Amino acid sequence: MPVVAYISRDWYGSGVHAFDILGDPVRRRILELLADGEHTSGAITEVVRSEFALSQPAVSRHLRVLRENGFASVRAEGARRFYAVDPSPLSEVDVWLDRFRGFWDQRLDALGTELARGKRASRRRDAGQADRPAKGT
To answer: Which are the contacts of 52, defined by CB distance < 8 A and separation ≥ 6?
Structure first.
């Protein structure tokens, strides 16, 4: 009987699992926005509302989930709130994904080899056509 591997709660502590956070498309989109730099809650809300048709309170709940689970930090500047991505929980995801990189690396290396072959073949074809006189001359 095969052994079934799973991520135990001990692996990520008593909080919400990182993949639970990242499994939501709205939260992923917010993190994508924050990956480009700090944004105000208003700017985030504007983008998310236009893309997902959510209310401002719904966007605020997603921001709170990200903040409370360590994926985002917030700083106040007057009445404005600036959010930034916190990469710490993402490094935990990176560690978990590391066991699978071997699968990707082999395929990416093979793709790189095929792309290089294609470029060499294209250069040879282009060089061969440059040596031939044009038709009709």
So the answer is: 25, 26, 29
Greatest Cα-to-Cα distance within the chain, rounded to the nearest angstrom: 78
- How many CB atoms within 10 Å of residue 78? 5
Rounded to 10 deg, the angle between the 56-68 and 41-52 helix axes is 120
DSSP-based helix, strand, coil % in the chain, nearest 5: 65, 10, 25
What is the tens place of the pLDDT at every residue in 25-84? Answer: 999 999 999 999 999 999 999 999 999 999 999 999 999 999 999 999 999 999 999 999
- Asked whether the beta carbons of 21 and 71 are under 8 A apart, the reply is yes
